[in-house]
Amino acid sequence: MRATRFTFEQIERDIASPIVEVRSRAVHELANQVNQDPSIGPRALPIFQRMLPVEQDPFAVTEVARGIELILGHVAAVPLWTKLLDHPSPGVAASVALCLQHPDYVQTLLNCLRRRTEPLVRSCAINVLGRLKDPAVLPVLIEHLSDPSLRVTTIDALANHDDPAALPYLRPLLDDTSDGRMDDRGCMLTVGDVAGYAVRQLEHRANLRATTPAPAHKPISLGGEPARYPTASHLPTVEPIPLSTAVALPFAGPPRQWVRFAPYVPLALGLIEIPWAIMVLILTYNPQGGPGRTPQQTHTLDFVAALPALVGLLVGFYTVLRGRVQGGLAWTCVIIGSIVCGLAVFVFGLEFFN
Questions:
Q1: Which of 3, 94, 161, 263 would be 124's cystine partner, CB 3.0–4.6 Å?
Q2: How many CB atoms lie under 10 A from the CB of residue 292?
Q3: What does each C-alpha distance from 56 to 81, 115, 254 come to in angstroms?
Q4: 8 Å CB contact between 259 and 301
Q5: Alpha-carbon distance 14 to 6, whole Å?
Q6: The pLDDT of residue 232 is above 60
Q7: Distance between CA atoms of 318 and 309, rounded to whole angstroms?
Q8: Contact 229, 216 (CB under 8 A)
Q9: β partners of residue 188
Q10: Which has the closest alpha carbon to 60: 101, 31, 97, 100?
């Protein structure tokens, strides 16, 4: 608990302030005091009720509603939250939607999706509906995949909803290269990237549910017989993870932007390798003769000449592990580029180790 508390006189004075930050801080403090000491609820309620009709700041409005709910209870506050979803300000309505993290508000949020047309409000409602995991919500979320302005939010909501029935509707989006959203590293993800991450999440959770052993049974004693424990034959069989999957696990997760072009890198570097190797050999050629190059110089020259091909091989290996090779053209570029780069690395490798 903080060492100092705002007095009611100070809170009432700050609530009348024209500065949004002062009003928001005051109502937040009052709601926290009601949460810590419910006995002050009757005195705080008129302050909240007086502030609610005139306040336009999203954070302040949601704090007022939270304070009223703390005083009157959840059931009595449901009509208040429902009414606030129709607030004329889209920012307020969106903030209110994000606060409705209770199953009682599923139908309220569905009605909000039908009434409100602002993308911000609809996006927040879809976000919360996905987290509530109500089975009746799944068809509504799938329907909103067709809306480009809500597609990325709906994909994330379906991942949070955690129903494998959404997988057939997410997989067709894997090839969508339109811009999706920024990740936490500042990279722009495509819609296909976001859908791929959601598909991996849903498949992983479905596999966990399918392979998780049943809860252990307590020993049962029948009359004077000794207690019986489940034998190994009663336990479910868990298949080992394939080696390829285990190797690829460290590379799982949303990819960076440049990974989209990775399948074409091996072929590009394979084509660059030929003029690069010729240029290196020409620049190091000594037409005057002489004692020639030392073994160390020869090894360095071979490594420099083979560097583009070596990078192409590594990028091709990384791309296949990440599962980023999609489509016939991408596979053709990876295969041909890897063969060209592999031949170049093989030739210069022989020179390097001789």
A1: 94
A2: 8
A3: 15, 21, 37
A4: no
A5: 10
A6: no
A7: 14
A8: no
A9: 182
A10: 31
228 three-state secondary structure: strand
Q: The domain 133-212+248-255 is classified under which CATH number: 2.60.40, 1.25.10, 1.20.58, 3.30.1490?
A: 1.25.10
- For domain 1-84, give the fold: Leucine-rich Repeat Variant (1.25.10)
Q: Structure pTM?
A: 0.58
Question: Scanning the structure block, which residue is given the tokens 């969106």?
Answer: 94
Write the pLDDT tens digit of every residue in 140-189.
999 999 998 899 999 999 999 988 999 999 999 988 888 888 877 777 88
Tell whether the model's pLDDT for residue 240 goes beyond 70.
no
- Give the residue ranges of DSSP H helices in the chain: 8-15, 20-36, 41-51, 58-72, 74-84, 90-99, 106-115, 119-132, 138-143, 151-161, 167-170, 191-211, 243-248, 265-283, 295-322, 328-353
In the chain, where the domains are located: 1-84, 133-212+248-255, 259-353
d(CA 354, CA 352): 6
**3-state DSSP assignment of residue 189:** strand
CA-CA distance, 273 to 345, in Å (whole number)? 10
Report pLDDT digits (tens) over 183-200.
777 778 888 889 999 999
